[in-house]
Design a protein that fits this description.
By secondary structure, the protein is α/β, with parallel strands linked by helices. The protein has a single domain, classed as Alkaline Phosphatase, subunit A. It is about 30% helix and about 15% strand. It contains 10 helices and 12 strands. The radius of gyration is 21 Å and the shape is globular. About 45% of the residues are buried.
Length: about 375
């Protein structure tokens, strides 16, 4: 049976290197304001999370889930990559090392009950992300409307079903899974979907993607993992303007998704990650350059949230890394290990992280 434990993992990747120091502001660290005289987010423009950190006002829609204990924020998190190259940092993070295949693909393949079924794994986008390389199967679709055969799709689907109905082996199984997935998605596309519990999705692409993810979750199609990207976080220039729009999209989309699913969030986890954070010092173009430590968000079932998980080193020059970067004090794989333990009963993650011994962060208590 596909997805026999009923859990769904939603992996949101912020491509471009999101500035964690603007999203989750260390407003009680005076050094933050000294090194960012123009870009520093004032305390009055944040929502206090604890005595040290505040959530940027553009992320205000996430405050409800944080206060309800369903959202945990991890600060100073990242990988061991120190190239500060988007391509190398993303590649390392999505592969979780230097071997072949992606971390999510290996998890889905090697967990005690491997993911099966035509819609067990879905990538919402134009291409399958590297994190899903090696997954038992993946359906990649930009949106429901593009996942069909064009006009008269139903008849074409019936003809293809008759053609492959008696085919055995890998080809027959692959064809039948594909046709089953297409039939399910076309059925969902034809439905007049309405978000529940008063949730309001935005009109941007990210919200539309999450709305479709919510529809798949509610339809109980056996989806165990789904990936969604939100691009454009490379903020070398006029960072405040660029990030303002992206933070609003991120927070409005996630907040609507959380509200829409209601009790179903108990078996859904959303993890938000990025390849690296930004330099502590602002640059001359009202932006920040590639850095090291960043932030992750974990929302959903069983999360002991309402807290910022960090080993905060401060922002004094003596603790900064390289040209002036927040050091990575928590490895992203330790966060993922905790999620995999809950979702897949995976106690030992050596097959997922062959080059790293993970020590799961205490996200669930």
């Amino acid at each position: 049976m596909a997805n026999d434990n009923g859990h769904t993992l939603v992996v949101v990747y912020l491509r471009g290197g999101a500035d964690g120091l603007s999203m989750v502001v260390p407003f009680e660290d005076d050094r933050y304001y000294a090194v960012r005289p123009t870009l520093a987010v004032s305390k009055s423009d944040t929502l206090a999370l604890d005595t040290m950190f505040g959530l940027h006002q553009h992320l205000a829609p996430l405050e409800a889930s944080y206060k309800e204990g369903a959202l945990a924020i991890i600060h100073g998190v990242g990988s061991e990559d120190d190239t500060r190259s988007h391509f190398e940092a993303q590649d390392l993070m999505e592969h979780a090392g230097y071997g072949g295949g992606g971390w999510l693909g290996r998890y889905l393949r090697y967990r005690p009950s491997p993911a099966i079924g035509p819609l067990a794994t879905v990538a919402i986008g134009k291409a399958t992300p590297e994190s899903l390389r090696g997954a038992p199967s993946t359906v990649t679709l930009e949106n429901f409307d593009t996942f069909d055969f064009g006009e008269d799709s139903r008849r074409y689907l019936e003809d293809m079903g008759a053609l492959y109905g008696d085919v055995d082996g890998y080809l027959g199984n692959a064809a039948q899974d594909t046709l089953s997935a297409m039939d399910t998605i076309m059925t969902l596309k034809d439905q007049d979907y309405s978000a529940a519990h008063g949730a309001l999705y935005g009109g941007d692409a990210f919200s539309r993607k999450l709305r479709q993810v919510a529809q798949l979750v509610k339809a109980d199609v056996g989806m165990e993992a789904v990936t969604v990207d939100l691009d454009g976080w490379d903020s070398h220039f006029t960072q405040a303007v660029l990030m303002g729009s992206l933070m609003r999209q991120l927070s409005q989309g996630l907040a609507a998704f959380y509200q829409d699913l209601g009790d179903k969030m108990e078996k859904v986890t959303v993890v938000v990650m990025t390849e690296f954070g930004r330099r502590v010092y602002e640059n001359a173009s009202l932006g920040t350059d590639h850095g090291r430590g960043g932030v992750m968000f974990v929302m959903g079932g069983g999360v002991q949230g309402g807290r910022v998980v960090t080993e905060w080193p401060g922002l004094d020059d003596a603790v900064l890394e390289g040209p002036g970067d927040l050091p990575v004090t928590l490895n992203y794989r330790d966060v993922l290990a905790a999620i995999m333990k809950r979702h897949g009963s995976m106690e030992d993650t050596y097959r997922v992280f062959p080059d790293y011994t993970a020590e799961a962060v205490d996200l669930y208590g």
